[in-house]
Each structure stands twice: as C-alpha cells, then as structure tokens.
C-alpha cells in the first residue's frame, strides 16, 4: 500500500509541457519547503483538519495557510498577473501530492482557492478579478458556497432563494443548508432565483454576498460526529452590490456548473494520497487486531486498493480536459471517490469488529469518526442519485426522470 506514484505515461495523458528534470526539481522544492516549514509553531498541525475534523486548530491552520501564501504556494495555476505561478497541470498535481505525502494540515481556504477563484478567473469581470482574487490568494478573505436548500438538496435547479434588484443592490431572501464553513466565511457565492416566475435552470444568478451583515443568520448543524463544520444560513433582505454577479443575470446555472467542474479537478489527486494513507492505516490496524487473517477482510482490503487505482486512472484520463466537462466526467469522479471512501469507513468498522460499536470515554476514535462522516460523502456535493441522473440524461440520452 502507500502513496500512489505517478508515471511518465500518466503525465503524457495530462497534456501540457513535460520535462522529467523540471518536474523532479519542482517536486524537490515543494518537498524541501514543506519539511523545513512544518516545524516550530506549525509542527503540531500535521494531519489535522481532515473530513469530519474541520474544527481542529482552525486559527492555527489559518495562520499556516497565510504562511503558504506569503511563500507563494497558494493558487499555483493562476496567471502570474494575479499572484499565481502560472504552474502547469503537472506541477499542480505534484504540489497536491507532495502536500498530502507530508501529512500537512487540511487547508481552510480551499473553497476560495479551488472553487470561487477559478470561477472568477474564467467568468468574472476585470473589476471582480481585481477585487476578489488578491484576498483569496493571500487567504485574507474566506469563502463558503451557497447552493443546497432544505427543499432542494442536491437538486440545484429546484432552489427557491430569491434575489431582486433594489436600486444599486440585490436584496436576497431565502435559506441555504449544509453550507460548509459558513460560520467562519467572509463571503458566500450564492445561487439565487432572480427572474420571478422562472423554473428549474432558467432565471438563476450567481451572486457574491458579504456574510458580515444584519440580513444573514448562520446556525451550526450538529453532525453525527458531534462537530458542526456546516450550517444553515438564512437570508432576510441580505444585500450585495448590483455588479457582484458572475456572468450575466440569468446565467447562474452555467456558472454554477463551471464551479462544480473546478471542484473536482486537480486537487482530487492530493485527496487520493490522503485516501491511500487512510487505507494503509486500516490495513495496519487489521494486522494488529488479527482481522487481516480473515479472508473476507483481506479481500476487501485488496478491492479497496484496486478501487483507489481506478480513481487515479479516471482522474489522469480526464485531466487534460480540466475545466471543460462534456462527458459527465465530474459526475463519474464524484460517484467513484464518494462510494470508495464510504466503503473505506465501512471496512474500518469491519476491522474493528464489535469494539467499533463502543465509544472510548464517550468520544469517537478516528475509525468511528471516519465511518460516520463518510456516510455523508455520497450526499454532499451532489448525491449519488443526482449524479446518476446527470449521466443517464445528459450523457446517455435516456428519458428524464419524472419530477413533481
């Protein structure tokens, strides 16, 4: 087991400029910087803040993110004019993988850097780029995503949160739910219905909304793990400037789909390194407890390893088209990793056996937390059912599912 290696053939599939010497030099630079800087005040942050543990050392991880930014390690793929390194796809992959191998802490700025930033670069006005990209790159402004709603869930086209122009501002009313990190965010990108009487994909707009205002109420939602990294957010005549809409009013669906494609891009390869570490830890646990002697458990561990290779193969195959999804690749990727990770949580509990049913001193151990949190993997970011409908209807051309 262990970290998955990238071959030269993998790189060729990604397209772009390839130099083994340059890549090796870049990887060494990343590796050496992380080894040198994950020390001192940041030494204890290693491994903190993963899924279900976003509450861990938040202020310290924020300081770490800003330390990364000061050294030029945020927003690598952005053009140099916006503070990035104009890094190749291959270099971005190397960074994410080396970061994961170093067991560096989970980033607190990923929503801005990996979702909103690329969206502004692709679809935003020059004024919007000048206003928002610097704060994302330096991690001085944090973002959250206002998509899901109580009556819509993963069906983004069913949202009812409404916005109307009132002079030189949008007035926003409605509710969002499962909004990750809303309690610490400075801004939220909100999908709202801006054309009265519109339905489904029509009449939606992509608004940038400041969180620190009287018209917004953020309420934490306690999860099965006992933590509350996501929230419900109420908009009661919340305000944002009329020009803080990405694209034209009514183009919100197209922009939102672009954001989701960025969400499932290069950083998922770093995610797979973390998955590989989790699998290696589960395998080591099975050996310690003797569960590995059970042929069924051993077979499930082998299947998990194969599944992880499938995740990587799909990611590499689609990397060349990053940012453009004309074949349902993003939905396939979400189905692959979400179901794999949920299965890993189930495997961990099988390895623990009956002991996994008892909390230690009324607290969850890492395997119980993994199991409980991964129950949500197939729901958030677009549920399994929605992803399968997208593939069936938009890729395979099957009849649309009946909707009320």
From TrEMBL:
The keyword NAD does not apply. SUPFAM superfamilies: Acyl-CoA dehydrogenase C-terminal domain-like, Acyl-CoA dehydrogenase NM domain-like. The keyword DNA repair does not apply. Keywords: FAD, Flavoprotein, Oxidoreductase. Gene3D superfamilies: Acyl-CoA dehydrogenase/oxidase, N-terminal domain, Butyryl-CoA Dehydrogenase, subunit A, domain 2, Butyryl-CoA Dehydrogenase, subunit A, domain 3. GO terms for cellular component: plasma membrane. One of its GO terms (molecular function) is oxidoreductase activity, acting on the CH-CH group of donors. Residues 250-396 form the Acyl-CoA dehydrogenase/oxidase C-terminal domain. Residues 25-136 form the Acyl-CoA dehydrogenase/oxidase N-terminal domain. Its cofactor is FAD. Residues 144-237 form the Acyl-CoA oxidase/dehydrogenase middle domain. Belongs to the acyl-CoA dehydrogenase family. PANTHER family: ACYL-COA DEHYDROGENASE, ACYL-COA DEHYDROGENASE FADE29. This is Alkylation response protein AidB-like acyl-CoA dehydrogenase.
């Amino acid at each position: 087991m262990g970290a998955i290696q990238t071959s030269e053939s993998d790189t060729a599939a990604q397209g772009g400029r390839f130099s083994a010497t340059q890549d090796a030099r870049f990887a060494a630079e990343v590796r050496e910087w992380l080894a040198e800087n994950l020390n001192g005040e940041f030494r204890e942050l290693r491994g903190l803040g993963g899924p279900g543990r976003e509450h861990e050392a938040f202020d310290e991880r924020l300081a770490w993110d800003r330390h990364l930014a000061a050294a030029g390690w945020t927003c690598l793929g952005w053009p140099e004019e916006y503070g990035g390194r104009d890094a190749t796809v291959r270099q971005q992959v190397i960074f994410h993988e080396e970061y994961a191998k170093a067991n560096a802490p989970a980033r607190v700025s990923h929503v801005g850097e990996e979702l909103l930033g690329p969206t502004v670069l692709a679809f935003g006005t020059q004024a919007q780029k000048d206003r928002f990209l610097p704060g994302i790159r330096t991690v001085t402004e944090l973002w959250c995503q206002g998509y899901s709603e109580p009556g819509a869930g993963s069906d983004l086209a069913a949202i009812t949160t409404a916005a109307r122009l009132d002079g030189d501002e949008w007035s926003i009313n409605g509710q969002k739910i499962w909004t990750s990190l809303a309690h610490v965010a400075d801004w939220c990108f909100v999908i709202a219905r801006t054309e009265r009487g519109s339905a489904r994909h029509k009449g939606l707009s992509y608004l940038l909304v400041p969180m620190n205002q009287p018209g917004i109420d953020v309420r934490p939602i306690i999860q099965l793990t006992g933590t509350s990294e996501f929230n419900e957010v109420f908009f009661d005549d919340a305000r944002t400037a009329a020009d803080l809409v990405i694209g034209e009013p009514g183009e919100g669906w197209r922009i939102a789909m672009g954001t989701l494609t960025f969400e499932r891009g290069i950083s998922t390869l770093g995610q797979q390194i973390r998955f590989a570490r989790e699998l290696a830890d589960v395998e080591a646990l099975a050996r310690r407890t003797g569960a590995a002697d059970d042929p069924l458990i051993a077979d499930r561990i082998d299947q998990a390893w194969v599944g992880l290779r499938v995740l990587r193969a799909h990611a590499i195959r689609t990397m060349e088209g990053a940012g453009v999804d004309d074949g349902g690749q993003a939905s396939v990727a979400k189905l692959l990793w979400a179901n794999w990770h949920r299965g890993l949580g189930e495997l961990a509990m099988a390895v623990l056996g009956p002991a996994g049913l008892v909390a230690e001193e009324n607290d969850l151990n890492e395997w119980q937390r993994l199991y409980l949190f991964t129950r949500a993997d197939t729901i958030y970011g677009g549920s399994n059912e929605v992803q399968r409908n997208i593939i069936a209807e938009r890729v395979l051309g099957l009849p649309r599912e009946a909707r009320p």
